[in-house]
Predict the structure.
Amino acid sequence: MVRTVEGGWKRKTVYGSTQRDVLHKITKIRRAVDEGVALSTSRPPTLAEYGATWLGATLATAVHLGHLKQSTQNSYEDQWRRHIEPALGRYRLDALTPAVLRSWLAAKSSKQSARGRPLSPRTVRYLHAILRKALTDAVRDGLVARNVAMLVEPPRGGGRRVQPLSDAEAGKLLGVAAGDRLAALWYVYVGLGLRRGEGLNLMDGFLSGIGA
């Protein structure tokens, strides 16, 4: 008997292709029961089925509550539809394994983008982060016992080396920017070495402070 996510108790039957497989599943269930973890007694959904609910309800609620930006939800959905669901959507949540995810990440690392180049390590890491987030929510909702994405490391490297401006180049830039209405912002960029977004956020904060 196991405690269900609905709060009651129900007999749970397990199946497997071998006796060892069945014993392994029973051990996992017993461990969960000992730890007081509520289990789902229904068939776990496929990743595609879960994705529809996760994208349309879980993330939408997070946006509504202010825990997630709408642009982030849109980005997650775009990447999910293009890169995650086509490759992994057929797998049930409890059938995802580290080997499956490692194979997927390797395929994505060699897959060519629309520009004819392989996806960058940064993009593949982003895909991994989206899937990890989705499975974290699935564990929280009691649909699966573990987040298998936490057991797989995304690719490393791929960062571009930044080449700073020389003194002469910085001088030319500031000379050209002197007549621009945002000259002060350009001086801040060069003086502090800020990224574009950091400089814009700083300017927004300044304008908000003076009531502009």
Summary: Residues 1-8 have pLDDT under 50 and may be disordered.
